[in-house]
Specification:
Largest sheet: 6 strands, mixed
Low-confidence stretches: none
CATH architecture of the largest domain: 3-Layer(bba) Sandwich
Mean pLDDT: 91
Shape: globular
Oligomer: single chain
Number of domains: 2
Number of strands: 24
CATH class of the largest domain: Alpha Beta
Radius of gyration: 21 Å
Number of helices: 10
Helix content: 25-40%
CATH topology of the largest domain: FAD/NAD(P)-binding domain
């Protein structure tokens, strides 16, 4: 294997940075390109904390140039084709590429929601929410998954806003333990959040959300916290294999939110996918068959309800803990430190 192999990683996300750290340690003399259109990494699972506490955002970020300057290229990739990556400034050749550009908010083809509902999945989204939040008295959150519940809990616990959570399923947090979802429901209602189950938003204006039942919910601000839509405009719609590479090109891998998966989209899952991709690239470079490593269902999950409260899910049980918020802050600091110091946490 030539040490001068060129490996490009597009997207300095949880998956992208984990893949970079794994590959860099094994092939220190390889040529790496780490692309991102932003010059910072953000711990996205903490965005709900930063909504009501803007000072937290800085604590959950670090400079990519400072910690990954040997490979970091602060440019947006506009094309990936024929083993070439093109930005607005330059074209880079690669032998292997890892795409971890994330995903976009899924509006399910609803133009009204796309126009009036604000995304809540990225720092640019958060900046818009910050501007709108002070004047908003009535807030409607669409989506009863992890991000919808954590945003609703934070607003209910730390603000005087009138918050309504619209959930398309018959219970909150449908991807995890039912009892945990019921506990989250009770907590939200205790904090004054109105939870509406088995309802779908079919249209919206600047001042209301209309449900499929015909009910109209007044809203000064609408937050879209539904599932993400996996897409990658840089590539054709080629299927992805179990080893996370394109079916028609085994030199291009996808991991993180951009890769279609039935797993709960967490930082934990993204980092595991980054490891899997790194292992398969290593196997190819050493000309051996990669060992199969399948994604396992995440058995432990910390869900925050407000700045401190929350619960831990483990397999078939859950445990309410008044200091879950502090635990999540510890997890955040640990992962940020692991990236800065190039330490691979056990996951």
């Amino acid at each position: 294997m030539s040490e001068k192999v060129k490996i490009a990683i597009v997207g300095a996300s949880f998956a992208g940075l984990r893949a970079y750290i794994s590959l860099k340690k094994r092939f220190p003399k390889a040529i790496f390109y780490l692309f991102d259109k932003e010059d910072y990494f953000t711990f996205i699972p903490s965005l709900h904390l930063s909504l009501c506490r803007p000072s937290h955002l800085q604590k959950s970020q670090f400079s990519l140039k400072r910690y990954f300057g040997e490979a970091f290229i602060h440019e947006e990739v506009i094309s990936i084709k024929d083993h070439l990556i093109e930005t607005k400034k330059k074209t880079y050749a690669f032998d292997y590429a890892v795409i971890s550009t994330g995903a976009k908010v899924n509006y399910f083809g609803n133009d009204d929601l796309k126009k009036h509902a604000l995304g809540a999945k990225s720092v640019p989204h958060l900046k818009v929410l910050h501007k709108r939040l002070p004047a908003a008295k009535k807030i409607v959150i669409i989506g009863g998954g992890l991000s919808g519940v954590e945003y609703a809990a934070m607003l209910g616990a730390t603000s005087d806003k009138e918050v309504t959570l619209i959930n398309g399923a018959d219970r909150l947090l449908p991807a995890i333990l039912p009892k945990a979802g019921a506990y989250a429901n009770r907590y939200l209602e205790k904090k004054g959040v109105k939870v509406i189950h088995d309802a779908k938003a079919v249209s919206a204006t600047e001042k209301k959300v209309v449900l499929d039942s015909g009910e109209e919910i007044p809203a000064d601000m609408i937050m879209m916290c539904t599932g993400l839509k996996q897409f990658c405009p840089l590539l054709d719609s080629s299927p992805i294999t179990d080893t996370l590479h394109l079916e028609d090109d085994d030199h291009i891998f996808l991991c993180g939110d951009v890769a279609k998966s039935d797993k709960v989209p967490t930082a934990h899952a993204a980092m595991i996918e980054g490891d899997i991709v790194a292992e398969h690239i290593c196997a190819k470079l050493h000309q051996r068959e990669p060992k199969p490593r399948l994604m396992k269902r995440q058995t432990t999950l910390a869900v925050g309800l407000g700045p401190q409260a929350g619960f831990i899910v483990f397999r078939s049980w859950y445990l309410p803990l008044p200091f879950t918020g502090f635990l999540k802050l510890h997890i955040e600091k640990s992962i940020l430190l692991s990236f800065k110091r190039r330490i691979k946490l056990f996951i």
